Amino acid sequence: MKIEQRIWMRKSGWAPSTSGPVGQRAQLVFVFGAKQVLKDEMLFQEIKEVYPVANIFGCSTAGEICGVRVLDNSIVTTAVEFEHTKLYGRQIRLDEMDKSYQVGRNLAESIPKEGLVHLFVLSDGLNVNGSALVEGLTSHLPGHVAITGGLAGDGSNFEDTLVFWNSVPQKDTIAVLGLYGDRLKVGYGSLGGWDPFGTDRLITRSSGNVLYEMDGRSALDLYKRYLGEYAQGLPATGLFFPLSIRTKESDTRVVRTIMSVNEKEQSLPFAGDVPEGAYARLMKANFDRLIDGATGAARNSLKDAHAVSPELAILISCFGRKMVLKQRVEEEVEGVREVLGPGTVLTGFYSYGEICPFASGEKSELHNQTMTVTTFREE
User: Fold this and answer.
1) What are the structural domain ranges in the chain?
2) Rounded Cα–Cα distance for residues 56 and 372 (Å)
3) N or C terminus: fewer CB in 10 A for the chain?
């Protein structure tokens, strides 16, 4: 596996200014960038010209990762020349959030299964029920195939997001990449680091990913009361106070983040399901634990990769972590670097949701407020 990276910034353009030897042979280019920059079709065409035979795969972000740098308003490209790995990708439009499961199922049904090692997914970050999407994808994949990836971002705007597979970036889109070949070794890990506070509250009324009532009271009113002065900045400030969700059947908790606020219905749409009958608990940030969560995710990814330093790692971290960590945000990326080693190329982005199994052998889930690490190495 050979890899090269380039960064585009508005003031300085592309760095390096020209592509290296990977350019003409790369089969895949990951492209992560700010939404407004990705809308520039001339820049997108430049990427295609530099990598003429590559599949172009990426999304808009809430911040871009290149090495141990965290950038804004940039484009980061990571071109990969595989030696033994085959690829299959496609994208599909998601017209309505309620169709998230069916779209995931349709994608999974269309993917060739023979030799499939891993599925990487990039999804619209706002017009989607991420939990239902992942359920649809897992419903028609072999049990040994893990799914990782994330939901596209739009900075702090929360207006719309862009995703693409060999097309101009488009909103309301989901794209998947299947990787094939027994010489490709994939690792993954996902951890948070948030502290719960307050008491568990019973979700007494919800529908899919929309929360209406907890303990028989308006969920929006309860949330605003907990947030105090932060409530004026919803939905963006909701990233500082995610919900921890626990079902009656399991002690495992998933974290859910508010995506919008519906004052008319007094409801809170989340990035993934908030099941009726489950228990919800508010969480708040702990700086040191957030950074420890990132390094823990990296360590877990090495367990699946048999503790051998990977060649490439894709880091997908929640935008809420970036907002909380602020000027310390690069510390979580540096923590991943320390675990994986200097020989691993790091790329990725800040997202509106992360997709990864809790542990090796378990089914993939939608997460919020985590650092998710996916590593790749060819033998």
Assistant:
1) 2-191+288-378, 195-283
2) 22
3) C
